[in-house]
Every structure is written in structure tokens, then in C-alpha cells.
Amino acid sequence: MTHGMFGRVGVIMGGTSAEREVSLRTGEGVAMALEERGHDVVRISYGAATRGIDELIRAANIDVAFLALHGRGGEDGCIQGLLELFGIPYTGSSVLASALAMDKLKAKELFRLHNVPTPPYYVAGESDLADLEDVHGSFGFPAIVKPRSEGSSVGLTKATTMSELQAGIELALAHDKHALVERFIKATEVHVGMLNGRVLGAIEVVPKSGLYDYRSKYTSGMTEYICPPRLPATRVRGVMNLAERAVRALGCTGACRVDLLVTEGENEYVLEVNTLPGMTPTSLLPKIAQSADIEYGALCEMILDSATLHNAKPMRESARPSSVVFVGQEESQPLGRRAAG
């Protein structure tokens, strides 16, 4: 897609998830980079205290949405569905792929269906706390506990005893209705960056605490990043191939980051696929792109160029509906920029 073809770009950021602050940093970085490259950009920041995101999008009169959201409400298909209804192309994956990637249980079920290796796991809820020893059974320790549907390692803990497991599940349940308990695997953590189904590169993540949790991700100096990873070339190729398979299994498109574990043996495991990875200038995807000689502004523009509608049926311009009537309202209200004129 050629430069400037999109018209007004809305960078949607903030949101109401636990990752709001990271999203605001991502959004500002993207907005500044696109402005520097000559785009007409409007920042759409929302949260619990602002008007509804639907009102904000309608008022902004945008042609395309660059999603700089993270976590629940932004990365799970909700905003994607709204933009589909508004007829506004957006960056990232479809409603379904976004929802599947955000739901760690459903993602793992699809990985297994497509023979993509992922660490063993089970799901625990509030009712399982009373007889946790029976539920955990012979699963063993250490175990990693995380909310079923949160990002940025929010609520993630490592448990080495039954009491730590109980505390970890209780913490995860504070963020979600279900906790995912995963077998801890001693391995090197490698993240693969992808754009439109093509691998951009990979980066090795070395948290000083030994656990890549929220603090390690967002506290300066807590984690070392090595690009390219310190792995034999054949293993790096294997990891990249596995990342491609994981993305295909979930049907993800646009910019993605796949988080994997690489053991000293011959095993590799997929942890998750991030459909809206962090895009602050110091985030992992920009670091990976930089190693492939793609500077930050160019990466932002490439992601913008991938914006699309996934579920909308192609229509002739003359046949495109100009408005929708809401039940209980006499006047029709326009959806999206084209209808606003």
C-alpha cells in the first residue's frame, strides 16, 4: 500500500486493562513516528473515566486504526469487533485470532491440535482451591501460574511448594476467573518477531531474576536482551519455523511476537503468541526489526500498511451503507469516516 493512501490514522491507546501504562507508551511512540513520516495522526486515548471508545472513534473521524492497545479489551477481539462493525480497517489480527491468542487455554488447545509443542498445563478455578493437592496430583514442581487471559506476565508467579501454588493461583484469580498452571521448563527464552506471516528475526531474553515477569519486562536493567540469540544457526531456524506454525495455528496476521522456550536438549516449546506486541521504541519487536535493518519509523509504517478489515464482505462503494439505526433512537448515526461525510 502506498504512503499516505490511508488518510487520517487513529492511534488507539490506553484502555482499561492492567497494561494501560505500557499501551500509552506504545501509542505515543507510534504516533510520533507516523507523524514524522508525514501521516495525519490523531491520538485516541481512552480509559474508565472517558467517553466510550465507540464515541471517541466516531468523533475522531478516522480512516484507519493503528491498535496500540495491550491486554483485555484491546488485544482480545473486542476493539477489533467494534472496528469491523464501523468498517474501519485496523492493524493486527482478526477478531477470532485475537481472542484465541489472548485466551491461553484455547491457544494451547489449538497448538496441541496442530502439533505445536507447548508446556504441559491444567486450568484451576476458585472451586479447586479446597482440594488443590488432589487437583495438582503428580503434576510436580516447579510450576508457573498465570491468569488465563492477561498479557505482559501480569499475575505470573513461579511455585515450588503447595503453599506457593495456592498463593499463585489466588493471585492469578484476582485477575481472571481461571488460572493456568504450567510446567516450569528450564530453558532459554527466545522471542520471534513476525510481520504478515514473515519472520523478522529472533531475540534471546535473559531476566536477571530468572523469571520474565512484569517487573523484569518493564524495569530498566532487570533483563538482558541478546540479538541474535546465542544458539546454533540450525536451532534458530527451527525456532523460527515453530513460530510460523504457532501463528498459522491461531490464524494471526499483521505484527506478532511469538514467545518460545529452547532447552539444552532438542526441545522447543511455544508459550504464547502476542497479537499486539509492545511497540515502544525499546520494545522487543522494534529491537528485532532493528537487527533486520528496519528502523522504528519504517516498522510502524509497515504495520500500518498491513491494516485491513477481516470479516467485512467486500462491497461496491455505491452499495456501502451510510448509517445504522439504533433501537430506541429516531435518528440514524454514522459509522466510520466514510459515512460521516
Structure description:
With about 350 residues, the chain is an alpha+beta fold. It has three domains: about 10-90 and about 305-340, 3-Layer(aba) Sandwich (Rossmann fold); about 120-185, 2-Layer Sandwich (Dna Ligase, domain 1), CATH 3.30.1490; about 185-275, 2-Layer Sandwich (D-amino Acid Aminotransferase, Chain A, domain 1). Helices cover about 35% and strands about 25% of the residues. It contains twelve helices and 14 strands. A five-stranded antiparallel β-sheet has the order 10-9-8-11-12. Strand 13 and strand 14 (about 335) form a beta hairpin. It is globular.
Jot down its keywords.
341 residues; alpha+beta; Rossmann fold; Dna Ligase, domain 1; D-amino Acid Aminotransferase, Chain A, domain 1; 5-stranded antiparallel β-sheet; 4-stranded antiparallel β-sheet; 12 helices; globular; disordered C terminus
Q: Give the terminus-to-terminus CA distance.
A: 24 Å
- Contiguous uncertain segments of 5+ residues: 316-341
Name the overall outline.
Answer: globular
Q: How does the helix and strand content classify structurally?
A: alpha+beta
- The arrangement of helices and strands along the chain is EHEHEHHHEHEEHEEEHEHEEHHEEH
Strand arrangement in the largest pleated sheet: 10-9-8-11-12
Can you summarize the main beta sheet?
A: 5 strands, antiparallel
Query: Helical proportion?
Result: 25-40%
The second-level CATH architecture of the largest domain is 3-Layer(aba) Sandwich
Rg is 21 Å
Text of the CATH class of the largest domain: Alpha Beta
Number of strands: 14
Note the beta-strand portion.
15-25%
The overall number of domains is 3
Query: Which fold does the CATH topology of the largest domain refer to?
Result: Rossmann fold
Look at the structure and give the mean pLDDT: 88
Number of contiguous helices: 12
